[in-house]
Automatic annotation (TrEMBL), chain A:
GO molecular function ontology, one term from the record: DNA binding
Protein source organism: Nonomuraea wenchangensis
Lineage: Bacteria, Bacillati, Actinomycetota, Actinomycetes, Streptosporangiales
Domain RNA polymerase sigma factor 70 region 4 type positions: 128-178
GO biological process assignments: DNA-templated transcription initiation
SUPFAM superfamilies given in the database record: Sigma2 domain of RNA polymerase sigma factors, Sigma3 and sigma4 domains of RNA polymerase sigma factors
Domain RNA polymerase sigma-70 region: 28-94
Keywords per UniProt: Sigma factor, Transcription, Transcription regulation
Entries under InterPro entries matching the protein: RNA_pol_sigma-70-like, RNA_pol_sigma-70_dom, RNA_pol_sigma70_r2, RNA_pol_sigma70_r4_t2, RNA_pol_sigma_r2, RNA_pol_sigma_r3/r4-like, WH-like_DNA-bd_sf
Protein name (record): RNA polymerase sigma-70 factor, ECF subfamily
From TrEMBL, chain B:
Keyword NAD found: no
Transmembrane annotation, as ranges: 38-64
Organism annotation: Nonomuraea wenchangensis
UniProt KW keywords: Membrane, Transmembrane, Transmembrane helix
Similarity comment: family membership: Belongs to the LytR/CpsA/Psr (LCP) family.
Residue ranges of every copy of the Cell envelope-related transcriptional attenuator domain listed in the record: 116-266
Keyword Oxidoreductase: no
Protein name in UniProt: Cell envelope-related function transcriptional attenuator common domain-containing protein
Lineage, uppermost ranks: Bacteria, Bacillati, Actinomycetota, Actinomycetes, Streptosporangiales
Domain of life (superkingdom): Bacteria
Amino acid sequence: MILQPATRGADAELVNASWTEPEAFAELFDRYAGMLYRYVSKRLGPEPAEDLVGETFLVAFSRRRSYDLAYPDARPWLFGILTKLISRHHRSEAARYRALLRAPVEHTIESPADRVAAGVSAQAVRGELAGALASLSAKDRDVLLLIAWGDLTYVEVAQALGIPVGTVRSRLNRGRRKVRAALGDTNPMAEEE
Amino acid sequence: MDDLKLLRDFGARLEHEPPATLVRQRERLLRGRPARRWWATWWTAGLVAVATAVAVVVPTMLLAGGRPVAVPPAGARNVDVGGAMNILLVGSDSVEGENVAYGPQRARQPDGGGRRADSIIILHVPEDRGAVTAVSVPRDSIVRIQACAGDPARVDMINSTYDQDGGLTCLRQTLQKLTGLTFKHTIEVDFTGFKGVVDALGGVQLTLSRPVDDRRAKLKLPAGKVTLDGEAALGWMRSRAQGDGSDIARIKRQAQLLRAMAKKAQSSALDQNRLKALLSEVRESVRTDLGLEEMAGLAAQLTEARISTTVVPWQPARTDRNRVEWRQPQARELFESLK
């Protein structure tokens, strides 16, 4: 799905070219539509994903002249737009996680902490994970999932959301703390950074 | 095990591969006119929020506290809210002072004068009340308008029928002619009048995501929870310094205000005097041929129903690219399905 034609280099060049030649923007679509689709499908499921990806590119296209060409990689920009669009669905997102929370878990082992210690799969603790995600504030969830599911770095998340890197760190820490607490880990030494 | 690793694995299980149909979104991009489409999506969302809020808010306020004020007890009269029907819903925002300019006599007429139709919605309620469809009609739709109330036949924007002398009557007539539908009822909401309603409620509480400082609207509010009186609520709703200053942003604020009002109406125990004041204010700002009971009955049914929303299929008008015209035969087919 993701094609990387060698004809053009960085995303910024495509954005720049699209000023005079709008078709160039479609190449950006070819590069990242699949990636964005996968990300939304995780957060909101496949139904709204297609439309949200389309809207993301339409919004991006309409704002292409305000894109800072100093950033060669357009992913943070696109993820930023997508995150705003996703925020309009935060209720259905939380409902989706809660539904996963209620879904029956196959194995019942002693306690969530033991399962983690035993290195059990994410499948076994999906109820806890879903519950934790549902309970996070929208801001913390955005940061945590951009990193865990969107594969962005701290700096890229900061760019995407227009917030300082320090804020990214604190939101991420808070999010991870809640996830760990849901998994039954209360060890304060596990705190990172 | 690392929590991030667990989350990633969890995500991988939720992930879906992009379908082949994703290419449609690429075409959507290439076909262009992004700003308009983006705008249309927002608009529908805003309109429907307003429509549902109105359908629910008004009866809630009238029946606040479960007190039957000026309302016959339920079942005392056989109310007909059964059967499939279409309701025409118009949200307007009159410009203050204009009513005065038209003179008191005109202002007292049911259609009023000098209002702009901000939102035009056809609410289709099927017989089983299962899934209500809200069809918003772009107000800048270029359509053929018949002569009505002294205005000549012409091709013009649909909301021009409402702005002129004929008001709702002409808009209703024009839409009935264009769509082939019959509107059993009409609901008109004047947002200006909501100022009085807000005051009668004793103010409403809103949560603002950022502080407001709009000198032109003489409005200065901190971020967070604020209580607004009628004047401030209206100013906030109308302020152009809010959001991106667009129509969509404004419609969203209308919906937000309505929700806040519904909340207040439900939560506050109103004394008799306040309730009377509230009722008269509501009568000022909502005009409908639906009786109080019918409205309450309908609202009760609508709160249960699934509401799907759509816009009349349109395309940029050939005569003026900044306006829209209905796309045929899709628009005709849509209306056919609502009969």
